[in-house]
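Protein: UDP-4-amino-4,6-dideoxy-N-acetyl-beta-L-altrosami ne transaminase
Species: Spirilliplanes yamanashiensis
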Amino acid sequence: MIPYGRQSVDDSDVEAVVAALRSDWLTTGPRVDAFEAELAAVAGAPCAAVSNGTAALHTAYAAARVGPGDEVVTTPMTFVATASTAAMLGATVVFADVEEDTANLDPAAASAATTARTRAITAVDYAGHPAEYDDLRKVADSAGAVLIADAAHAIGSAYRGRPVGSLADLTTFSFFPTKNLTTGEGGAVATADPALMARVRRFRTVGIERRELRYPDEGGWHQEVPEFGLNYRLPDVLCALGSSQLRRLAAFKARRAALSARYDELLAGVPGLRLPARRAWADPLRHLYPVRVLGGRRREVYDRLRAAGIGVQVNYIPAYWHPVFADLGYRRGMCPVAEAFYAEQLSLPLYADLTDAEQDRVVAELRRILS
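Structure follows.
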């Protein structure tokens, strides 16, 4: 089976992890600081590593003080955690529709969805293509809301020459094995705001505070918990893998770009198939290659490709279709552009170690089915 995505781990990655295992620090040690510093150089803002991408979102919302009575405007074309982590903090999630070509949050739809209760607006860089952050910034500022970027797909991407990670008030990353780089499980939160970063670091470390103490004279051992948090720390062993992967990020980006360009060329003009959009100002590190299968044939094409050993995927079910949101009163039809996109979307295999021969097999099988 050719998977739709997978990690690329080489000897340098293994050696980095082994060195961490043989060191004095398996967690809360120097490799965490090193990974965060190296990640910040790519993201364009200070970063705090966390245990996974969902934890990154939960931490970002907590740092933004999202809670009961607040509304969070976001896209339905995303993994459910973009919405569910806000709901778990007591906020009401308001879904706004997406742009027809990129499937990213539509700034006009986001603006229409804001109210006096809007606390945050969360965009998703779908498939690695950055959202329209300049327009979304205007919407967020007008609403008095925090702008959050779910860049789980987009580490290494840039928007109008600026790195993803420097565009929103808070940016979250995921380092799951199918993503652009991996720590096995892992994620990060980026922000240039020192107050937000202080809350991020406190929340991901069980709420523990060692500097600003209510009772500072208890002794050198003393620590306090002024606000609840969770243990979302990423250990040194996984940060060592992350640092090694960051050194390969440029090569990952080049290979994914080459594979995307080959798909563009090899699938051009195939009847019943629409290729992914790329706006002129975007420099994406593509996490997905999302085609659209027209004519109501997506299910057929999915089943036949999987039967042929090609592990295509669908990304994503509109978030409010999940029973947990349906049971809260969300109804299908709320975001028609997103639902139309979902009805046709299919992710073709895309990862750094995908060979040209494997890609040719994907293309040939897809052409055969659609012919």
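Remarks: The chain has two domains: 11-246, 249-370.
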